[in-house]
Design goal:
The complex is a heterodimer of chains A (341) and B (300). With 341 residues, chain A is an all-alpha fold. Chain A contains 12 helices and 2 strands; from the N terminus they run αββααααααααααα. Chain A has one domain: MetI-like (MetI-like fold, Orthogonal Bundle). Chain A has a two-stranded antiparallel ribbon. In chain A, helix 2 packs across helix 8. The N terminus and C terminus of chain A are likely disordered. Chain B folds into 2 domains: 57 residues, no CATH class; 220 residues, Orthogonal Bundle (MetI-like fold). Chain B is flat. Classes of the chains: A mainly alpha (341), B mainly alpha (300). The interface between A and B is large, with 95 and 98 residues.
């Protein structure tokens, strides 16, 4: 191309000059660098988070940190067991309450609801996702918790023979209210994914079930639910990921018990809540312990989300084979719904 | 379907009628599903009702025109409003959007136009998925480590913006990618066949076609970022005064609500309800606009 000085030169008339090709290269490599930057950033963050939490792990060992049942800041004892278990109790509760309701909502919208009401119902459920976490916390602590205290006490008294659930006085911030708030918060995402998966059940299968004389419920049980089981489980796992990482609402309604709570209706603590509560005034080892709590939280959500992705993408691959919906456009749209919800 | 309704209407059809037990089970299951849906809508109604009930009571002209004073023990009128919080939220989110939207759309364009099915593109998609799942408070920790521990400086509004932009990135990338993939390949090919260079095809054909659809995803990302408290707690921190300098401490609506919730003074808690109503109104408006735009779009 050194002969570019000659007009035309050895270049074909249709070929672009090297100069005109420059913006193309710049765009391509620029964008590639941008994509690479994101990878580098995440890896860098992770490494730094690990480095910052190193002192806490060194102080009492990884095992002692995760399984120690005492979060005593002034005594420099940082056992994260009450936090880890608090996170697991509240998010487990959220799944237990939230997933059946979400699946029922999705089934109602897809199978039972009059066609004209369907968009309105979908929008209403999605509105639940638009309410910010801090507003749920505000509502939970000033409305839900006081209103439900009597009912909780009743349940606690009746079920006093079951360890952990029964017995003891109901406190206003407690595990159960936190789980309930989380159930409301994960409802839209689980419902949205369930609805998307249910929409892909081939109508031949549903019609075949009805044609054989199945009732509406039998059709749902034999044709719809088995077909979308993996998708629903994947959606529930994504909801679990959300519930585990949810911070502010939980911080407001769970309390700040430094040891494992005695019962379901008593005060607890969670991994995310301890960071939000204590990070502002934390110094030295305490701050490092909070970074370590963040690291545990990060790894926990990473595992849950990875499992969820595998399940959802497997569900959509099965779909791709047996339905007319193009498989190629499915996974991103599900992920998009997940991110947007 | 008719068989269920006309159970035993005519003797000839009676043999095909659904037995009473099956019909009962069907009715029970349908009832449970309907009840579940109703249960899902109850919290929405209650949240909206209480927000309006408590929030409107706190609203007044001075609520939006004064800064919170921190003076909570004397007269209820002297606790101030949420001016600095609203302006802070707008400033922080505006900068976060200015960072996240170009980068996010850039990565999405790369994924669709250049990366496609390459191994590197799969790695990028995986990491974007990872970002989607990271708890918002962990983004706060990331930014704290890099911009506050790393530089030895203190909280600042722009650091909050960085934390929020990390949160927005995966939403923007994923939604933009979905829209870009919907653009017919024939459109690109005809532009290329006319002799347009790749960058011109992207800038003049692909992006304008995708624009309305991408606006929806972007608005949803902004709506999500506006409501986040956790990443701002120890990046932008909080202050009471209105400040337009993003390198100072910065107040924001979610953080002010969070701080007011723990107050023992009723008037301050009422201020939190008023602020919550303002925040939810803002976010719902963004959602509404996003929906209207997506209805206009021919692609999505």
């Amino acid at each position: 191309m050194s002969t570019a000085a000659l007009p035309g030169g050895d270049r074909s008339i249709l070929e672009r000059s090297p100069f005109a090709r420059l913006p193309d290269r710049a765009l391509k490599y620029g964008l590639t660098a941008l994509a690479a930057l994101i990878l580098a950033l995440i890896v860098y963050f992770f490494v730094r988070l690990f480095a910052e939490s190193e002192p806490a792990f060194a102080h009492q060992g990884v095992f002692g940190f995760i399984f120690g049942n005492d979060w005593d800041v002034s005594g420099e004892k940082f056992g994260a067991l009450p936090l880890v278990v608090g996170t697991l109790i509240t998010s487990g509760l959220a799944l237990l309450i939230g997933v059946p309701v979400a699946v029922a909502t999705a089934l109602y919208a897809n199978e039972l609801c009059p066609l004209r009401l369907r968009p309105a119902l979908t929008v209403l459920v999605e509105l639940l996702a638009a309410v910010p976490s801090v507003v749920y916390g505000l509502w939970g602590i000033f409305f839900l918790a006081p209103k439900l205290q009597g009912a909780e006490q009743w349940v606690a008294d009746r079920l006093s023979f079951i360890p952990f659930i029964g017995g003891g006085a109901v406190t206003i911030p407690n595990y159960f209210i936190a789980g309930l708030i989380l159930a409301i918060m994960i409802l839209p995402i689980v419902s949205a994914i369930s609805r998307e998966v249910m929409a892909t059940v081939p109508s031949d299968q549903k019609e075949a079930a009805l044609g054989l004389g199945a009732t509406r419920w039998e059709m749902i049980r034999t044709a719809v639910l088995p077909y979308c089981r993996a998708g629903i489980v994947g959606g529930a796992m994504l909801g679990l990921g959300r519930a585990i990482g949810e911070t502010i609402a939980v911080t407001i309604v769970i309390g700040d018990a430094p040891q494992l709570g005695k019962h379901l209706f008593g005060q607890g603590y969670s991994l995310a809540a301890v960071i939000a509560n204590e990070f502002g005034e934390a110094q030295g080892l305490h701050r490092s312990a909070l970074f370590a709590a963040g690291l545990v939280l990060f790894v926990l959500t990473l595992l849950v989300n990875a499992l969820a992705r595998v399940l959802v993408s497997r569900a959509s691959r099965v779909r791709g084979r047996s339905s007319t919906v193009s498989a190629a456009s499915q996974p991103p749209s599900i992920a998009g719904a997940a991110a947007g919800a | 379907m008719n068989a269920h309704g006309a159970g035993g209407a005519s003797p000839a059809l009676a043999r095909f009628a659904v037995s009473r037990a099956r019909r009962r089970r069907d009715r029970l299951a349908r009832g449970l599903i309907t009840a579940g849906t109703a249960i899902a809508l109850i919290p929405l109604g209650l949240v909206v009702y209480y927000l309006l009930h408590k929030g409107l009571g706190a609203w007044s002209a001075s609520f939006f025109t004064t800064d919170p004073t921190g003076n909570t023990f004397f007269k209820t009128s002297s606790i101030g409003g949420v001016k600095s919080a609203i302006l802070g939220t707008v400033e922080i989110v505006a900068l976060a959007s200015a960072i996240a939207i170009p980068i996010g759309i850039g990565v999405a364009v790369w994924l669709v136009e250049y990366g496609r099915d390459s191994a590197f593109a799969h790695v990028v998609r995986f990491f974007v998925d990872v970002l989607t799942g990271v708890p918002s408070i962990v983004f706060g920790l990331f930014i704290y480590i890099v911009l506050i521990v790393g530089t030895g400086s203190s909280y600042a509004g722009y650091k909050g913006s960085f934390a929020l932009s990390l949160l927005m990135l995966p939403v923007v990338i994923r939604s933009a990618e979905v829209i870009l993939m919907l653009i017919p390949g024939a459109l690109r090919e005809s532009a290329l066949a006319l002799g347009a260079p790749r960058w011109k095809v992207i800038a003049r054909v692909v992006l304008p076609t995708a624009l309305p659809g991408m606006v929806t995803g972007v608005l949803l990302a902004i709506a999500r970022a506006s409501g986040e408290t956790a990443p701002l707690l120890f990046t932008a921190a909080t202050t009471r005064n209105t400040d337009f300098n993003l390198s100072h401490f910065m107040n924001s609506l979610p953080v002010q609500i969070y701080n007011d919730v723990t107050s023992p003074t009723t008037a301050v808690v009422n201020r939190a309800w008023g602020a919550a109503l303002a925040l939810v109104t803002m976010i719902l408006l963004l959602n509404l606009i996003a929906r209207l735009v997506s209805r206009r779009s021919r692609l999505a």
